[in-house]
Every structure is written in structure tokens, then in C-alpha cells.
Amino acid sequence: MLKPEAVDVAKFRPALAGAVNTDVSADQWDRVRQRLREEIGEESYTSWFARIELDRISGTTVHLSVPTRFLKAWIQDHYLDRLLELWRDENGATRVDLAVRTAVARSLPLKAANAPRETVSERPAVVAAPVRQAVAAAPAAQGTSDVGAGSPLDPRFTFETFVIGKSNTLAHAAAKQVAEAVPGAAPLFNPLYLHAAVGLGKTHLLQAVAWAGAARGRRVVYLTAERFMYGFVAALKSHAAIAFKDALRSIDTLVIDDLQFLTGKNMQQEFCHTLNALMDAGRQVVVAADRPPGDLDALDDRVRSRLAGGLVVELATLEEDLRHQILRTRSQVLSEQHRGFAVPAAVLEFLSRHVGSSGRDLDGALNKLLAVNKLTGEPVTLEMAEGAVKDLVRPTDPKRVRVDDILRVVAKHYNVSRADLLSQRRTANVVKPRQIAMYLAKTLTLRSLPEIGRRFGGRDHTTVLHAVRKIDGLIATDRALADEIEALKRLVAE
Ligand SMILES: Nc1ncnc2c1ncn2[C@@H]1O[C@H](COP(=O)(O)OP(=O)(O)OP(=O)(O)O)[C@@H](O)[C@H]1O
Sorted alphabetically, which Gene3D superfamilies does this protein's record hold (predicted)? Predict the structure, then answer.
């Protein structure tokens, strides 16, 4: 293995002076990657640099490419300076240009020869049973009715699997305190009321309270508000309402989820009686809803004020670190359950940044990757993930570039009309902006060459290809144009 200090830098400098010697540049590239690998470690290297390629060296600019926009942005943010330093040591480069590889870029005949190709681990995919959501009921009060036995609990929703972050520290601590309180001791926070928007972990925490409380020998009943209503109606019908009430009132901890769905005057009254009876008897009540007690308009004032009188805690939106951690632990579990399913670090990072911010979106994204992996045998890579979770990407992300945006920005910048760009006119003041617009359409959107041709006044795909190659070539030699195009890209993205 070549050590960095063994590199005779001077030997390779002439490569920059004139035409690129692909053997020399391939060797240089090998050494740059090797040094990077040693600096950042194998795992990070494989995650971020396994699919980076040297496209060409022109002048003192080194052109590298990666397959996805996310990878480009990440490397640019974190490693571009370091890459430049390493290249500067090798051949005196003054600039490293990182592009997203397109079909066109791939076909350019400038790639360093024999550059070793590295791929992210390609394990054989094994088709396995779909993820199963086992359910189990927590041990409940002796002699309770069917409903008294509680709604089913998901065995995955425990404190052990709950990831703590800034957005849920207080809610987690309060839930833990409630779950671990000594049986019979007067509750500290009663009721404990958790609220949050959808998918932020309310049910998970509530069920964790139920599991942990039951494990400590407490009589815990977990009910969704709907199940509570159903149970009460069923008990009324079978003349077992008294038994139902007694069963509920004899427990240690009542956990009610999705309280916003509690409707109807009778139900509210019944719930209010149960709440009062339990709290007056020193029993713990834990409630979750999608809004604070004051906003539960359908609820009786007395219930609202009783609920607000305990500890009310909001679970905020999952922050990026927390999303990342949740994804990491979930994907580890899936990997253990499904041989051949592995989610590389770069993909976890991509998902935590771009997928919607509720826990349910994160689950959905991982399930999507699992499904694609199982059904097609395709290993999970950034490219695969970007395609698979397209529909789960947050709308707040930088907007997707449209050909229309490109036409608008280019027309304005070069002071021509949109119609000119789409027309058959061949005057120089129109031809170049048109070629630049086509180049931008190819590099900033996912559209194919024929699609772009159609959007540019019904042109053939070879015309688009010619334009893209032409501008690509000019950028390599014309610094001013390269800067201008970078500025246009920024304008289009705004
Ligand atoms: N902090 C966390 N740690 C681990 N998993 C989490 C966390 N927060 C949310 N999740 C996961 O996100 C998913 C949705 O969470 P949960 O069902 O608890 O949401 P919710 O707030 O009850 O939503 P809703 O209001 O729609 O019922 C679950 O798979 C849950 O395990």
C-alpha cells in the first residue's frame, strides 16, 4: 500500500502543463483517494467516496463526479477543500470541480484510464417475510372485561427503543418517572398529558409506560380513546357498564391515547368520572393527544381543566440528529431481520436530512428501501434511495428545478426572450444561451435528453447532447463562463 509520504509529488507536476496523461492522472487519483481513505477511515470513505470518479483534468482544474446531487452537496460542504489540498500536492491543481454524473458525462471520453472502480457492498438480496407488526396486550387488572385488558401494545414501543433528543427529553423523562414510580406511591405528575403533531412518538412513549409499568407489577391499561368509547358502549349494551367502570377504576395506571377522538357528551362524562375517580384514588393517568388540553374544543371545560392541571408536555418536531439516530437503530433491526439488507451511512444521512420529519415518514422510508431491495435485489445505495423515497422527501427541501425556471433565468440573464430560446433562430446571441439552458436542464434536472429536446421547441436529442458537450468543454477552458454558469445555477435554484 502506498503511503502518502512515499509519493514523489514533483514527478507528477508536468501532467498539468499540457495534455493530460491519463496513466499519470489515474495514478495521482489513486494516491489522492488512498490518502483520503487513510485520513477518514474505511467506513466513511466507503460511504462518501466509493463512487466518486475522476472525469478529467483540464488546465489546473480537476473534474470529479459523483452519481447524486446529495453526495455532491455533502462532499462539497465537507471535503472539497481537503480534496483540493490533496490534488495540489499531486499536481499543483488550483481548483477541484465536482459535478453530478449524468448519462452524458459518463460518455465523455476523458475518464482516467483504469481507475479502479469501487462499489458499495453488493450483498445478495434474500426475499424474506414482510415486516411483521406483532402485538401483545400488557398484563392488566384481574377480572377486567375484554376492553379492560387494553388495546394491543406494539412490542417495539418500549423505552429501550425510544431515542431521546432535544425535542422529547422532557416528555421522555416524565414518562419514565411515571413508569418507574413505586407502586402505591402518590403520583408526582397527574395526569401526565403529552401532546404533539402526528408521528412524533406519543404512542411510542405511552406504550413504553404501559410495558414498563406492567413489568414492575403495576396494573396498567392502555386504551385508545376510540377503544374506550367502544368498550363503554359494548358494556352498556351487555348491561355490564358497572363492571366495566369498576374494572377501569381498580387499576394503577390508565393510559389513554389519541384523546382528541373522544366525542359525545356521554362518553366525555364517563371519561371525566373515570379520570376523577382514578386521580382521587391516587392512581396515575397518562394521556396523549394531538393538541394541548386547551385546544380540545369538543371536551367539556371540567375535563380540560383537570387535564391541564397535571403536567402538560409537548413533543416537538424530531430534529435532524434524532431522526438520524432513529433511522440508524431501525435500520440495524431491519438488517438483523433481513439478510442482505444494509443501509449505508450515506443513505442514513440522506434520509435524515431530506425525508419528512415525523417518525412515521422515517419508518415509511426504510420500509420502501427494504421493499425495493427485496423485490428487485438492488442493494441500498444513495442512487437507489433517492429514487425510492422521492415521494417522501420534505416539501421544504430546496425546490426541484424545472425546465421552465431554467428558461426564465437564462432568458433574463442574456436578455433574450423565452420564445427565442425555443425558436429555430440561429443567431449567435440566441444559440449560446440556448445551449447553456440545455446544459443546465441536463445537469440540474432528471430529464432525459429526448425530454429536454421536446421542451426546447421539439429538438432532437442529439442537438441537446451536442449542446451539453459543447458547454461542458467550454467550461473546462473558460473560467469566466464556468463562473457565469455557476451563478446561473444558483439563480435557478433560488
Ligand atoms: N424518539 C423516538 N424514538 C424512536 N422511535 C420514534 C421516536 N419518535 C417517533 N418514533 C417512531 O415513529 C413512529 C410514529 O410514532 P408514534 O406512533 O408514537 O407517533 P404519534 O405521535 O403517536 O402519532 P399519531 O398522533 O399519529 O398517533 C413509530 O414507529 C415510533 O416508534
Answer: 1.10.1750.10, 1.10.8.60, 3.30.300.180, P-loop containing nucleotide triphosphate hydrolases (3.40.50.300)
Cis peptide before 187 (omega within 30 of 0): no
Of the candidates 1, 10, 113, the one whose C-alpha atom is nearest the C-alpha of residue 53 is: 113
Whole-number Å distance, alpha carbon 338 to ligand 1 midpoint, is 22
Query: What pLDDT, on a 0 to 100 scale, did the predictor assign at position 130?
Result: 24
pTM of the model: 0.57
**Residue 222: phi, psi to the nearest 5?**
-105, 125
Residue with CA closest to ligand 1 atom 23: 199
Say whether 201 counts as a known binding-site residue: yes
ipTM of the complex: 0.98
Torsion angle, alpha carbons of 179, 184, 186, 188, to 10: -10
Is residue 153 in contact with ligand 1, taking CB distance under 6 Å? no
Q: Give the number of the atom of ligand 1 that is nearest the alpha carbon of residue 157.
A: 31
Of 95-109, 150-164, 301-315, the one with minimum mean pLDDT is 95-109
Say how many C-beta atoms besides its own lie within 10 A of residue 378's C-beta: 16
- Distance, in Å, from the CA atom of 403 to the CA atom of 400, rounded to the nearest integer, reads 10
203 is in an annotated binding site: yes
Alpha helix ranges (H) inside 146-221: 169-180, 202-215
Q: Please state the domain extents for the chain.
A: 4-107, 147-314, 320-386, 403-493
Q: For 307-356, how does the pLDDT look when each residue is reduced to its tens digit (9 = 90+)?
A: 988 999 999 989 989 999 999 999 999 999 998 899 999 899 999 988 87
Cα of 229 to ligand 1 centre, how many Å? Answer: 23
Closest residue by Cα to residue 289 from 204, 198, 164, 171: 198
Do 4-107 and 320-386 come out as alike in CATH topology?
no
- d(CA 363, ligand 1 centre) in Å: 9
The second-level CATH assignment, the architecture, of 147-314 is 3-Layer(aba) Sandwich (3.40)
Q: Which atom of ligand 1 is nearest to 163's Cα?
A: 3
CATH of 320-386, one of 1.10.8, 1.20.58, 3.90.1570, 3.40.1390: 1.10.8
Protein residue closest via CA to atom 11 of ligand 1: 359
Q: Report how far ligand 1's centroid is from the alpha carbon of 172 (Å).
A: 12
* Ligand 1 centre distance from Cα of residue 394 (Å): 18
How far, in Å, is the centroid of ligand 1 from the Cα of 211? 16
Residue 114, classified by CB atoms within 10 Å of its CB into exposed (0-12), middle (13-18) or buried (19+), is: exposed
198 within ligand 1 shell (Cβ under 6 A): yes
Q: 360 in ligand 1 pocket by Cβ < 6 Å? A: yes
Q: Confirm or deny that 199 is annotated as ligand binding.
A: yes
Which of 288, 380, 377 lies closest to 331, judged by CA? 380
- Grouping H, G, I as helix, E, B as strand and the rest as coil, residue 96 is strand
